[in-house]
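Example 3.2
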Amino acid sequence: MSGEAMLVFDEGLTAYDFGHGHPMSPVRVDLTVRLARALGVLDQLKVVPAPIADDALLTTVHTAEYIAAVKRAGENPDVPDLEHGLGTDDTYCFPRMHEASAHVVGASVEAARAVWSGEVVHAANVSGGLHHAMPSLASGFCVYNDPAVAIQWLLDQGAERVAYVDVDVHHGDGVQAVFYDDPRVLTVSLHESPTTLFPGTGSAGETGGPNAPGTAVNIPLPPGTGDAGWLRAFHAIVPDVLKAFRPSVLVTQHGCDSHVEDPLAHLTKTIDGQRAAYVALHDLAHEICDGKWVATGGGGYAIVEVVPRAWTHLLAIVAGHPIDPATPVPESWRDEVRMRLGQVAPSRMTDGRDAAYTDWSSGYNPDTWLDRSIKATRDVSFPLLGLDPTY
């Protein structure tokens, strides 16, 4: 990698906190940064604090009415506002919710600014990736949609085309909804089937609005899909659609809740498969848009076993110095986990799996749900992007 890389992070970003017992604990972000520091990854990154997005920036995606509702909810967290999705069973209200959420948005926009200006080639915000938030509705642990605001900022600065790839186990419905009829934005989401997992959207037939046919690409995966199947699906679709779209910038969301140990979903990937996906996205950024890459976090609820290792791998790849999967996890970090959380942390940066897969060109097997899903997406999306859906 040529050029400096950046992490946008400060301790204030851990204030995005729904409280004790909520699965989206900010501890996962804190542990990630501490592990990355212990392994020397932060030495390879320019680390900068995050600004707080102002209302003018937020209203490029969210309605003024919704922003006012978020502010009220943060001032009176015991009073739910179900009309705006605030105070539901998954998206609790908490004090100063607006400020904490706007801080996450500011971090993603700062990452986008640094990449677009040429200050760095790659930039990351692991606290971000809140992809379910809608313009006037909180959803799925997401209050403001930081990837969408960052993408809109890039468009407003003159980016002709932006591609967004979402590898979270849940469909990236909020980002898709914001740009569904905008031909300048390609949204690609690989996720567990909407028939078995929230938010129940993301079928292959969702391909973009009337003014933007082909700019939404959805790859719903069967429950139980592991590294080999997930990577087969990724490589059968994502490189081709990105090359056809020719984005100026690549924005990615790296929810690691596709892991077999994640408590909220049903895929069976490992750290090794997730790392392979990050490497592939890094390489595609260099191949198609001169390396301009903005990476965010996302879901991930195995906060000791999975998230810190997965996102430390991501940050190392962003920095241009990938970590050998066989690298031991530093004992100092494992001791901290034991003292703080009373848990035994993993001992290596790998799950010991081989992230190999069988390429789509080897042939289509109609007897498998996975291959039928891949073919369905290719059949509906490829022609809209000028691609041949056959092998």
